[in-house]
Design a protein that fits this description.
The protein is of the alpha/beta class. The protein has 14 helices and 22 strands. The chain binds NADPH dihydro-nicotinamide-adenine-dinucleotide phosphate and 2-oxoglutaric acid (AKG). The site of 2-oxoglutaric acid has 10 residues, from loops.
């Protein structure tokens, strides 16, 4: 089945679908044909948002929230179809897609509930007979620009806090994955979201995305994607003194200490590194072993890599789907060549003969200054490094420009606490894969992974989409 995907502007579906998306697991099978916005159309979406926003902001927050809650119910009722479409357009396995759709449902529910908890403080005043309180007001029109790797969860975790806070939104999803956002926006529309409160423009990021970023009517831009594009967006949005939130790459380490069980450590590494085909900003891409466990861990990881055979995500039993695009596959393969050229040994991860498939890769003898140890690959590639002890492992873990997620496998409580205290990362996992986040927990990176300001997810996510007004009320 081919989906025809049109923009959503002022409550209407508009545009002529022209951009073809094929199933990465089944070359030649068209999943969707989507419309592509130019600069003028992106401007129309901003205008629609601008005219809808005041009435939306004046709607009681619980009523805004109840629309999100209703959209969650609608999405849940069609979750199987949405998950199948997600697998067909992005490639991840059906189990992974079902988990992601369920996560989007829960995100809508969570922020639906936030409508009842909207916020502010009462504070004592230094003046007599004066009542002081704060309230959080919506920024106005916000733009959200999202990647292909979590095509429904990331849009949901950006637009839900924006909407419940009283903003109107223009969303620009990744060109590779138009269908998931179509489902999300349909659920919100059917749930009663007023026209213009959520607008969706599909198309090329360098055209439609850029137009949103440069539009002076857009008060805040939230972006997830590559460092390169994130930096462009940061420069453009900061230049006009609007708000910008960036979640970008990672080079996430998993430290494995001598006391760990090698098989368990390898399962944790593989789930983080090969799950989702390694296409997560939180994916495990480096494992740093202390000397006593290195060889046993590598043997166990090779056994795990053999289990994660790439296949069609729609087939039962497939543990790892295809790579999402030919461009991404070329990146994965080029990093394996670079790793070998710099002295790494590629023990698993040979080229697959057909389709967009990359087998799970294990690279050993990697040194901290190798490119495979410092640059994001975004594929099922794990580089194994050595360190003398915990402090040495933390030093290696911290020796990259990124700081998104980091993990450790150990039974030593003291070592786990020391790691959590000293590793430079926004998310720390002990005896759990680096990827996989709870939707109610703040998420964001440090160093080059993020803007290091506002966090996403959890109640704090609304902070980016609101500002504080302080009111001094004299009552005498
Ligand atoms: N942290 C993460 O979760 C992700 C990281 N990445 C990293 O980025 C690499 C490339 O992936 P890719 O999908 O190309 O990521 P991009 O950063 O190019 O794309 C992310 C989003 O930004 C849009 N965009 C692209 N250029 C501009 C621009 N000039 N102005 C505004 N918006 C723009 C894209 O649109 P369009 O779809 O048209 O390109 C997409 O919606 C990956 O290999 C990976 O390393 C990628 C995805 C997610
Ligand atoms: O690990 C996760 O659950 C989320 C990963 C993520 O945010 C991303 O890849 O952009």
């Amino acid at each position: 089945m081919t989906r025809e995907v049109r923009h959503l502007i002022g409550g209407e579906r508009v545009g002529t679908p022209t951009a073809v998306r094929e199933n990465p697991a089944r070359p030649g099978e068209t999943v969707a044909v989507s419309a592509a916005a130019d600069t003028d159309l992106a401007g129309l979406a901003v205008a629609a948002a601008q005219s809808a926003q005041p009435a939306w902001a004046a709607t009681p927050a619980p009523a805004r929230g109840s629309i999100l809650t209703e959209a969650a119910a609608l999405l849940l009722a069609r979750a199987d179809q949405v998950a199948t479409d997600l697998t067909r357009e992005e490639g991840k396995t059906l189990a992974e897609a079902r988990g992601e759709v369920r996560r989007a449902v829960d995100i809508l529910r969570f922020f639906g509930g936030e409508g009842w908890r909207a916020n502010g403080q009462t504070l004592p005043s230094s003046l007599p007979d004066t009542f002081v309180y704060t309230k959080r007001e919506p920024v106005g029109v916000v733009a959200t620009i999202t990647p292909w790797n979590f095509p429904i969860a990331i849009p949901a975790w950006k637009i839900a806090p924006a909407l419940v806070s009283g903003n109107a939104v223009v969303l620009k999803p990744a060109e590779l994955t138009p269908v998931s956002v179509w489902h999300l926006s349909e659920a919100l529309r059917e749930a009663g979201l007023p026209p213009g409160v959520l607008n969706v423009v599909y198309g090329d990021g360098a055209v439609a995305g850029r137009a949103l970023v440069e539009d002076p009517r857009v008060g805040a831009v939230s972006f997830t994607g590559s460092v390169e594009v994130g930096q462009l967006i940061h420069a453009a949005v900061s230049a006009r003194r609007a708000r910008v939130q960036l979640e970008m790459g990672g080079k996430n380490p998993l430290v494995v200490l001598d006391d760990a069980d090698p098989a368990r450590a390898a399962r944790i590494a593989a789930a983080g590194g090969y799950g989702l085909t390694g296409q997560a900003c939180t994916a495990t891409s480096r494992v740093i072993c202390t000397p006593g466990i290195h060889d046993a861990f590598v043997d166990a990881l090779l056994a795990e890599a053999a289990r994660y055979q790439p296949g069609d995500g729609q087939s039962p039993g497939t543990l790892m789907g295809p790579v999402a695009s030919a461009e991404q596959l070329a990146v994965d393969r080029s990093y394996l060549r670079i790793a070998a050229d710099q002295g790494g040994q590629v023990l698993a991860g040979g080229a697959e003969p057909d389709g967009l498939r990359q087998s799970a890769a294990v690279v050993v003898d990697v040194k901290p200054d190798h490119r495979i140890a410092t640059e994001e690959v975004f594929g099922p590639v794990i580089a194994v490094l050595r360190a003398d002890d915990l402090d040495g492992a933390v030093a290696v873990a911290n020796a990259v420009p990124f700081g998104l997620a980091a993990g450790i496998v150990t039974n030593d409580l003291r070592a786990a606490h020391r790691f959590a205290d000293t590793v430079q990362a926004g998310v720390v996992k002990v005896n759990r894969p680096t990827s996989g986040l709870d939707l109610n927990v703040p998420f964001g990176g440090v160093k080059g992974s993020s803007t290091n300001t506002f966090r996403e997810q959890g109640s704090v996510a609304t902070e980016f989409y609101t500002w504080t007004k302080s009111v001094y009320m004299g009552v005498d």
